[in-house]
Amino acid sequence: MATQTPPAPAPPRPAPHAGGLGTPRYRRPFGAGREVTIHWLTFLVTAALVLAPVIPVLYQSIRNQPLYAAGGAFTLSNYVHLFTEADFGSIILDTLLFAVLTTVFALAVAVPMAVLLERTRFPAARLFGQVLRWPIYISPLVLAFGWIVVYGPAGFLTSAVREGLGWVPWNLYTLPGMAFVEAVAQVPVAFLFCANALAASDTSLENAARSVGAGPIRTLRSIVVPMLRPPMLYAGLLIFGTAVETLSIPLILGEPAGLTLFSSFLYEQGIDSVSPDYGLLGAASTFMLLTTIGLVAVQARLLGHAQRFVSVRGKASRSRLLDIGGWKWLGFAFVGVYVVFGALLPMAALILRAFTSLLTPLVNPFDLLTLDNFRLIFAYAPYTESIVNSITVAFIGAVAVTLLGTAVVLVARRSDFRFARLLETAAQSPHAVPGLIVGIGFFWAFAWMPGGDAVRGTLLALIIAFGVRALPSAYGAISPATMQLGAELDQAARVAGADWWRTVSRILIRLLVPAMLASFLLIWTQMIREYAPAMFLAGAESQVIGTTAIDLWTQGETGSVAALATLQIAVTALVAGLAGLLLKRKHDA
Amino acid sequence: MPELAVENITKSFHGTTVLEDIDFTVADGEFFTLLGPSGCGKSTTLSCVAGLEHPDSGTIRVGDEVFFDGLPRTAVPPEGRNLGLVFQSYALWPHMTIADNLALPLKLRKVAKAEQRRLIDDALTKVDMAHLRDRYPHQLSGGQQQRVALARGIVYSPGVLLLDEPLSNLDAKMRGQARMWLKDLQREVGITTVYVTHDQIEAMSLSDRIAVFMHGRLQQVGTPVEVYETPATPEVAGFIGRCNLLDGRIDEESPADAKTLRVELGTTGRHLRVVRTDTAPAPGEAATVGLRSERITLTDRTDAEGDHADVNVLRARIEQCSYTGARFEYVLTIGDLRVHAESAVRHTGPEISLVIRPEDCLLYPRAT
Ligand SMILES: Nc1ncnc2c1ncn2[C@@H]1O[C@H](COP(=O)(O)OP(=O)(O)OP(=O)(O)O)[C@@H](O)[C@H]1O
Ligand SMILES: [Mg+2]
């Protein structure tokens, strides 16, 4: 289909047959069906949004002046400068080490848990499975704050241990410490990949191994774990990529210790420095962009392969869960310690910190209860505004991105648009662009574009930048749902007299409503946590929760940061709960 | 209503030719069936007519209205063709009631509300589904959904009705009933119908004419009787009904003017007298004889083999006999040839006589 030349416009319609009702008439703007206009509009909007942050970065990296300044010239000196700068080598090495450690830690925790919870008789497996997913809804920034409150130098447990032992066996402000905190944020990703792969795999292999006399542990070692290689590899790459681009932990934990990673380098160059070197920033951003694009390309290839050898065979042989006897309790201790000390305790401590003036093992926290932390936020208008801003941006953004994502999916998957595949790739490509770079790129794009100044620093700029970041998620949430709708549903409508747009509006959109709601919810939770692009883009009036939290953190207002994080968690949970109810009601009806 | 003409259409997917030079015309009010084995291109042909696929070349017309033309390229979109289409999967829109499913094509045609109601009632009554008009598709059985799909296909009086294996999801008994009322309905509405199936019984019992497809080519177009009695090629003979295809060679001594020809069967040294046809190969040339299993008479009589005045008699060994309820089916061997035959009575063998009338033999040239 894709290679066909587009049909010429239809000849004038003859009168309908006697007695028949004839065919419906449709307007034909530009001499072609109106779907042609819609397809091209969707394509051009998507392409513009996706390219807008990338092109200025590439362009700036080879200019010797700020890209909007007159009289600049092309140069490679920015790259020379970047790679000869003394620190840059060690920055790359540290980033690499951080990413590798994060990946190793996350997999080391997630893979055994996936096997234990999916494949063995495990106490309260369902409950643990649910709790393990939670950190997905909490931003790594908030998680990092929680960890500092508990395990930081003056943290709750740190003080307790110092009191007891006289020394503390850990230090968060080191590369392994940072990697561990980042790993906690990434464990759900690896866990979901591995657990889903195990749930979908054919268990007759295991049953066969059992039947030839392999014990449960032996079966796990030689059948189940090798089966996990593809999801481990894929999740590993995903985590590695996230660790390379993440800003929160390098900024919160690395900077105070003098550890500069790639993302914090960009932050220092672009925001902290008094007179930013735009060329250097462009070159560094380009370098980082190429790294993440490379990683995503490898992921895409691997995913293509992985899907081919995941054995999905229906549920004919529902697994008999393996009984690993006494090992079960060791496993239980492992999962329990991780869940309690890795995720629950930091969150509980952060929330408790929000309501106290100090959190220390020396004083009963309930003697220090106070609302001062919240008062500080609500007393100062820009802080309060940032909460409203986050909610506004997330709400409008989630609606807009869900609509654009739906349009993209319908054009890419349900039309004969000539560049359907390209559109699909374009919509997924922001996945490879780190949040900081989206921020830098749009910052420059607005500076460069005529009339861009009116947008820069407003909420609209944030909605656009956050929206581009979220577009791949919307695509991912909606696209699978269209695959479950048989092509005959559209074809029947077309033959019955509906043009493409009518088919979409009368049939497909109606059937995609649940997927669109799910997409909205996903994007909403993603956007309310998002802050990296705002580091560059937000003006004084358009701060969001994340940027305000970092601001308060650098002022040492730990309590107010905790309060802000608590508010963010509360709002997220509230909306998730409401949407859950709504979706459930829809489902029951 | 005008006729539907499909002229020389060709279609390939990614370099593999799926349709080659397909050419047929369906007359006004005719029930026309595309019959062929799975994957032979029936659905693709139907999709081309509906406008869901575009051929690489050729022309598709209804009356003077050109739906598709390879050169200069014209392609009317599906919504501009005013056809009715019913799928194997029914494709009822799951979020709409039965009545709303039927109303959509009418709404698109801006039919007034009252008129809509009348047309919907009319169509649903024709398929005996008027009482379920407010149900949703998932609340109906397969057979009921199939009727609704049909009603949706005719409610707006399309020019041509296209049906792609509409009965294949029904169980055997339902299918028999559905076949009958489908035929009645088509007669009553008088609509030109193109029907796709791989089931020869459906094709034979429903159609005015059948087009037999194989490997993307049209093998034969004819009435059910023509297709069965005088199949154009051995493949058609083999696909429709149970037909033995026996390799042989026309006897050199066949008299040139006689009504019948003698065919030497393989290397068995036996001969078969068959009726001469216009397309019969010349003496000495290789031939294939088609012999329907139900046209072979079996007898225990041990009359001498060889030429009789009006019939062939061949001796054969019984290799296998299976009881199918109505009759016995036999696998027989004549020398190294295997022959399938059937009989109402049980023969125990081990040898048996086959009585074959020359006019029951189908004679085809065979490429060697
Ligand atoms: N979109 C497509 N891309 C590639 N090949 C296709 C496509 N659609 C059909 N084909 C091929 O074209 C051939 C004919 O397909 P078609 O669906 O017309 O067969 P059919 O006669 O309807 O068979 P069945 O009775 O199984 O439905 C098949 O070999 C099929 O694999
Ligand atoms: Mg088919």
List keywords for this structure.
heterodimer; A: 589 residues; mainly alpha; MetI-like fold; B: alpha+beta; OB fold (Dihydrolipoamide Acetyltransferase, E2P); 6-stranded mixed sheet; 6-stranded antiparallel sheet; elongated; binds adenosine-5'-triphosphate; binds magnesium ion
Short description:
The complex is a heterodimer of chains A (589) and B (368). Chain A is mainly alpha-helical and 589 residues long. Chain A has helices at residues 34-51, 54-61, 77-84, 86-119, 125-133, 140-151, 156-165, 175-200, 204-211, 216-227, 229-245, 248-254, 262-272, 278-309, 327-354, 372-379, 381-413, 420-428, 435-448, 459-483, 487-496, 500-529, 532-537, 545-554, 558-588.
Provide structural commentary.
The complex is a heterodimer of chains A (589) and B (368). Chain A is mostly helical and 589 residues long. Chain A has a domain at 80-307 and 326-354: MetI-like (MetI-like fold). Chain A contains 25 helices and no strands. Chain A has helices at residues 34-51, 54-61, 77-84, 86-119, 125-133, 140-151, 156-165, 175-200, 204-211, 216-227, 229-245, 248-254, 262-272, 278-309, 327-354, 372-379, 381-413, 420-428, 435-448, 459-483, 487-496, 500-529, 532-537, 545-554, 558-588. In chain A, α4 (86-119) crosses α15 (327-354). The radius of gyration of chain A is 27 Å and the shape is globular. Residues 1-18 and 307-318 of chain A have low confidence and may be disordered. Chain B has helices spanning 42-50, 98-108, 113-126, 142-154, 172-189, 200-206, 224-229, 234-239, and strands at 4-13, 16-26, 31-35, 57-62, 65-69, 74-75, 83-86, 160-164, 192-197, 209-214, 217-222, 243-250, 260-265, 271-275, 286-292, 297-299, 306-307, 312-323, 328-334, 337-343, 351-356, 361-365. Chain B is elongated, with a radius of gyration of 25 Å. Chain B has eight helices and 22 strands. Helices cover 23% and strands 36% of the residues of chain B. The longest helix of chain B is centred in the middle third of the chain and has 18 residues, at 172-189. In chain B, the strands form four sheets. Chain B has a six-stranded mixed sheet with strand order 7-8-9-3-10-11, sandwiched between helices. In chain B, strands 16, 17, 18, 19, 20 and 21 form a six-stranded antiparallel sheet that branches. The two termini of chain B are 47 Å apart. In chain B, a hairpin with a 5-residue loop joins β13 and β14 (271-275). With 368 residues, chain B is an alpha+beta fold. Chain B has two domains: 4-234, P-loop containing nucleotide triphosphate hydrolases (Rossmann fold, 3-Layer(aba) Sandwich), CATH 3.40.50.300; 242-365, OB fold (Dihydrolipoamide Acetyltransferase, E2P). The chains are: A mainly alpha (589), B alpha+beta (368). Magnesium ion is lined by residues 42-43, 164 of chain B.
